[in-house]
Amino acid sequence: MGKLIPLVLCAFLFAGEDSVLSAIRADAIKKGIPEAYLNKAFAHEGIAIHDKILDRFARPYEKKSWSDYRQLFITESRISKGIEFYGQNQSNLTFMAKRIGVDPFLILSIVGVESNYGHNQGEFTVFNALYTQIAKMPRRAKWAKKEMVEYLVYCYTDSIAPHSIMGSYAGAFGYGQFIPSSYNAYAADGNGDGIRMPYEWVDVFASVGNYLIKNEYPVSNPANEKLVYQSVYAYNHADNYVKAVLELRDELKKSIIKD
């Protein structure tokens, strides 16, 4: 899990208040989060800074060469898991993809790359991932403060315990690995129960599809690979990522349709 620095030892406590809380308090209150809710969230004993997160940002996967990056995601294991996952979730996936107007194999590939079809949910709490960036990474602090506020808005609105959700080192969460602002903007209620769930597959399919649609996915001409590429690039601004998603899509489609 990396080195943990207890809050009592942090240099970020100032005048009795956590400086990360001080940095986001005004914006959070403007977004409708009660002050008491904020105080409780930032008094939690599980808050910690993870040095391992700094190491991850220093060596992001997307900066690897394409050959090295490809080996992480275009594997027999990921393809076979995708085929198995498709068999278990075909009804919901194809129904939702058709309703939204997105290639089901593209949605399948994205959840395959993002969370290995739900097997990888992250090793840090979303709260701590964002907290660490605000406290220790000046170049990311502005972005992370915005995402912390968005995350707390989500937790407060949907009655989610702020320290209960695991995610990536960057603060993305759910099977679709949305950052908080993207989740608030694009997550969709696939099953009609009035709640958008990051770990409910029908909602995940709807949310990933909605994200692509809102970012220029070519519904009227899904063969337009240039626009498909752009919509996936919006999901993660890295060419290696897009190439991996599209190649995995093609491998899954070829294997599943053949079977």
Question: Can you describe what's shown?
Answer:
The structure is a single chain. The protein has 259 residues and is mainly alpha-helical. The chain folds into 2 domains: 4-58 and 123-167, Bacterial muramidase (Helicase, Ruva Protein, domain 3), CATH 1.10.8; 65-120 and 174-258, Lysozyme, CATH 1.10.530.10. The protein is 59% helix and 5% strand. It contains 12 helices and 6 strands. Helix 4 (66-73) crosses helix 12 (239-258), helix 5 (76-100) packs across helix 10 (201-213) and helix 7 (126-136) packs antiparallel against helix 8 (138-157).
Summarize the amount of helix as a percent range. 55-70%
What structural class results from the helix and strand content? Answer: mainly alpha
Order of SSEs: EEEHHEHHHHEHHEHHHH
The CATH architecture of the largest domain is Orthogonal Bundle
Note the main sheet.
Answer: 2 strands, antiparallel
Major sheet: order of its strands?
1-4
* Poorly predicted spans: 7-15
Number of domains: 2
* Number of helical segments with 4 or more residues: 12
